[in-house]
Amino acid sequence: MSEPKTPTPTPAGDTYKGWVFKWTNYIKGYQRRWFVLSNGLLSYYRTQAEMGHTCRGTINLATATITVDDACNFVISNGGAQTYHLKASCEVERQRWITALELAKAKAARMQAEEEGIYKVEDLSTCNDLISKHGSALQRSLSELDSLRLTGEAGDKIRQVTERATLFRITSNAMINACRDFLSLAQANSKRWQKALQAEREQRVRLEETLEQLAKQHNHLERAFRGASQANATADNKNAAGPGKGEASDEDDENEFFDAMEEAPEFITVPADPQFHKRSSSNISGFNSEMCPDDQSLNEEPLAMNQESPSQELVPLKKRRTRIPDKPNYSLNLWSIMKNCIGKELSKIPMPVNFNEPISMLQRLTEDLEYHELLDKAAKCQSSLEQMCYVAAFSVSSYSTTVYRTGKPFNPLLGETYELDRRRESGYRSLCEQVSHHPPAAAHHVISDRGWTLRQEITVASKFRGKYLSIMPLGTIHAIFEKGDHHYTWKKVTTTVHNIIVGKLWIDQSGEIDVVNHTTGDRCHLKFAPYSYFSRDVARKVTGVVMDKDGKAHYVLSGTWDEKMEFSRVMQSSRGGENGAEGKQKTVYQTLKAREVWRRNPLPEGAETMYYFTNLALTLNEPEEGVGPTDSRRRPDQRLMEDGRWEEANAEKQRLEEKQRSARREREREAASAPHDNYQAQWFDRCEDRITGEQIHLYKGGYWETKDRGTWEESPKIF
After folding, report:
1. Residue 575 forms beta bridges with which residues?
2. pTM of the entire structure?
3. What are the CA-CA distances from residue 672 to residues 474, 648, 667, 682 (Å)?
4. Where are the transmembrane segments (predicted)?
């Protein structure tokens, strides 16, 4: 069957409607859409039936530019995030649309000027100046007349006064008439303005309700799909070391992030009987033998430099920067960008830098090392159970930098790297590389001279849910300690950004994770409580219990992910207390006095104008000599944003993204017969993790040696 003929656009009063082909993407190309031009606004829908409920986009013509490409193509742009590339079926139809658009644009601009009262205000201002001028002259003439005696000049002065009084009267009448006209205009249009404002408010409410409904429907579909997939999984897959409890936890309950009711704690802690304190002080029952040497003084001085390299102490440490340029005060309408992005991956939404912070996701991942000293202390512990407390505290500490950080890091380009060499200051070297683009994945490897190695590969899944944004890090974090060969793994919890459309943005962390020592079988179950309006408990609360392989509790951890964590030694446990939500009795732990294991560092002065960066974050994008050509510090759009040149940064960001897409298309052409992308990471090899069974990227070595030689010829030119 032949395609039905496209109907000619038809005017209806101030409204112009018709089918126009709109460019969508490189896969679908131009798609037919129903466009409606009304009241200076150009809106489009997929079908005519959508006009009553689902608008796909709108441009205000008062500030838009209209350009013609060729006989059938034309472009409409508002100079910001909205640009429509349109194509009419023929040149005549295109000219009809151009004429209608130009007329509507002129009328919209004129109405905007009239609504602002430009013309009437100018008339009133002119009349006011004239009244002031003539009034002053009249006052001077009257004063002169009063000082004169009635002589031959009296008649002339009287005539002068009369003339000026006449001018004053004429000007006053003109101003009165102008005021009367303005009042009539205001009275005639006030009801229309009020009606238009009310209509806008009602439309906004309907849009918010539609967003919430769509988000819920999308969530139900995902849950149904996930349920069907889980039904087909085998019991072995369920028991295997896979995604942890904290992964994508916000998807388990659609109401979890909407002021959920307060959840009862899983256990209760009470002070231990005094006899346990006496026994512990007299070194009975082996309690002190399980403490690490520095256990009695957690606030120890910073660890000394590597004793094997004393010559390093002779070289002064590099002074790091403590400020970056202040964040410009640029405003941008988030709604205009996000309203069509429900259910989409955040990494696939073209975002201007206005929503970013001037660091990449690789640098953001490196910020996990903000409290690396927790791993330094863990490496010194004699007891694996207390070592678990430090590792668990480290897993919590990485979230403390997010509490005020509502900006989105730059998505790394494929092959982008980031190094952080703090071997002389802190004993470690860190390297990240973007090893995959779809899905986006970054591999991270850290080696410390103080007896530990940290590695992770994180894929970020993110969904826009209408009122909030869910960010679900997928992947496993590994910490390996040389002493005892203790190997720990854990995952990250879900981050939620609230008030995406209306209100002040704020961030919450929620979910459950298990920190597991695969060498000894020790385990720490941590629970990040979601924010609840009804809760009487402290906000951002984190609780956890450290257990050995037999399930016996040894330590209880408590605190908040944005402030501090404490741990208490469990001396005795029993069933009792109030019943839980399912009628089960809670566990009661008798503990010794809690001691602080971690506390957040204060933010630098003026952090609110520097994207709320920590002292470490302020140094991450500081230029350094000798880093690789693919290092995030060399990324031009990120550097332009940090310097406050956001318009240039947006243009550069688009250039880099298009260059990356071109490189991907080229790889696909070269490997058309291959089932997968043939891309190979530069510094990491893909393999199977022997602990989790996951496909991961492991550091294969060679980066630091290449840096020492300065031979970067094999590095790709991604910028």
Report:
1. 587
2. 0.62
3. 29, 36, 8, 22
4. none
